[in-house]
Amino acid sequence: MALLESRAPQDPWKLFLRWFREAQRAGAPQPDAMTLATAGDDRRPSARMVLFKGLDGGSFVFYSNYESRKGRDLAANRRAALVFYWSATGHQVRVYGSVRKVSRDAAAGYFAGRPRGSQLSAAASRQSRVVRSREALEKRVLELAAQHPDEVPLPKDWGGYALRPRWIEFWEHREDRLHDRLRYVRLPGGAWRTERLAP
Fold first, then answer.
1. Whole-model pTM?
2. At a CB cut-off of 8 Å and minimum separation 6, what does 17 contact?
3. Which residue of the set 78, 126, 177, 196 is catalytic?
């Protein structure tokens, strides 16, 4: 269905959640995967895949190590972009906005619900830093497992981020590359303006 303004929801969150659920039902591989693009004070862009962990107060949430490349970038420059792409449904969503850290309590709640192996990996990894070997990393995981046989504490350098969009663009595949593109731009006060973009 074309993204006609008369049919598009006034609220971009309704459209995003509809497309996300459609991707899940269509069997899209890893539908919660999204590209996160950042740039630090060196102005050098960097992009990687992260996992979308939900919406919180009109923001896209993801988790990471604060000392990673992305964490260092976001500490220097809070502006970032996201891209979701679901080939199974022919949909893409692009997001641009500013990022803040989620609360420590929210991060602890999420971390506590992760599988133990994932908790240990997060605690063991100084993400994006050079390591001597794979064996050294695995040894550190075993050491932490022995130190914390019951509960793995939330690492002090690990937590969540929430990206609040300035705009969200919805792209839908159409024949002959005459794709549909609809952008929602946040206005002062929280309302949204919709704009149709040329493909």
1. 0.90
2. 55
3. 177
